[in-house]
Amino acid sequence: MPYTTKQNVPEGFIDLGEKLEMGHYPEVEDTKEEDRIHYPSLYFDNANGLKDLPKEGTAIIHFKKVMEKTITTESNGKSETRHCVELQIHGIKAGESTESEASEPDDEDAIEKGLEAASESKETQPDND
Q1: Which pTM value belongs to this model?
Q2: Please, what is the average pLDDT of the chain?
Q3: 6: helix, strand or coil
């Protein structure tokens, strides 16, 4: 189950982060209570159109809700209710990337830029044959 710290969700967006409670998720017991926030995730398979999607940003998603249910489970005398929704994603329109993405390149971006620079340098060097 993916978890993270509380994220800054832009104004006008629904914050889907939920605080995780002790006992329900043993894999996060060693983290500080304020650090245990779960955000749902979308997984896209065979979606070549998304390979140029930025690492972070906003997007408009065109979807159809194909399943919705509420599940209540009991564990160690505690009751937990979860709401589940399955969305069929028909399209996605990427918006602007966030300021943090533009100002803080990650290691993957740095490696990619370094490889591009090396390739360009090799192409512009004269042959000494």
Answers
A1: 0.52
A2: 75
A3: coil
pLDDT tens-digit readout, 27-50: 545 556 556 788 888 888 888 888
Dihedral of CA atoms 110, 113, 118, 119 in degrees, nearest 10, equals: 150
Residue 118 near residue 110, CB atoms below 8 Å: no
DSSP strands (E only) in the chain: 18-19, 37-38, 57-75, 78-97
Structural contact between residues 85 and 68, judged by C-beta atoms closer than 8 angstroms: yes
Mention every residue, 6+ apart, whose C-beta is less than 8 A from residue 128: none
- Short-list 92, 109, 91, CA closest to 100: 109
Domain limits, the chain: 1-41, 44-124
Residue-level pLDDT at 12: 86
